[in-house]
TrEMBL record:
Top-level taxon of origin: Bacteria
SUPFAM superfamilies for the chain: PEP carboxykinase-like
Domain HPr kinase/phosphorylase C-terminal as annotated: residue spans: 5-74
Molecular function as annotated in GO: ATP binding; phosphorelay sensor kinase activity
A biological process from GO: regulation of carbohydrate metabolic process
Record keyword Cell inner membrane present: no
Gene3D superfamilies: P-loop containing nucleotide triphosphate hydrolases
Protein name: Serine kinase
Pfam families attached to this UniProt entry: Hpr_kinase_C
Lineage of the species this protein comes from: Bacteria, Pseudomonadati, Pseudomonadota, Alphaproteobacteria, Sphingomonadales
Keyword terms: Kinase, Transferase
Amino acid sequence: MLHQATCVAIGGRGLLIEGEPGSGKSSLALALIDRGAELVGDDGVALTAAGGHLAAAPAPATAGLLEVRNVGLVRHEPRATCLVALVIRLDPEAPRFIDAPESTTLAGVRLPLVRLWPDSPVLPLRAEAALALYGT
């Protein structure tokens, strides 16, 4: 299934980034790539359930492209696939504290979900911390 989201792999673990158009999905991916993450797909990823896990792969139409706002489409070598460990949802109504992640189901696979406030200079650090704490 094609899912409207951006995905990067950090240490081989997939971080699926969801949010409204213009919320900063691509910008977060760019910042994470600058910190060593690998691009899987921007603004659309192919999701496949297998063995109780969710695999993400680049969408064929946009494979290897990352939108850099005010610059244009930039080529990045995409990672062929990864298993999604955590879903981040960029949400201006994100709670200040959480005791545990929420959950979401994609392609029949239940995954942990953490909402992050999108307008933060330390958003990539928060995303990495969420993956370390709550990623499966």
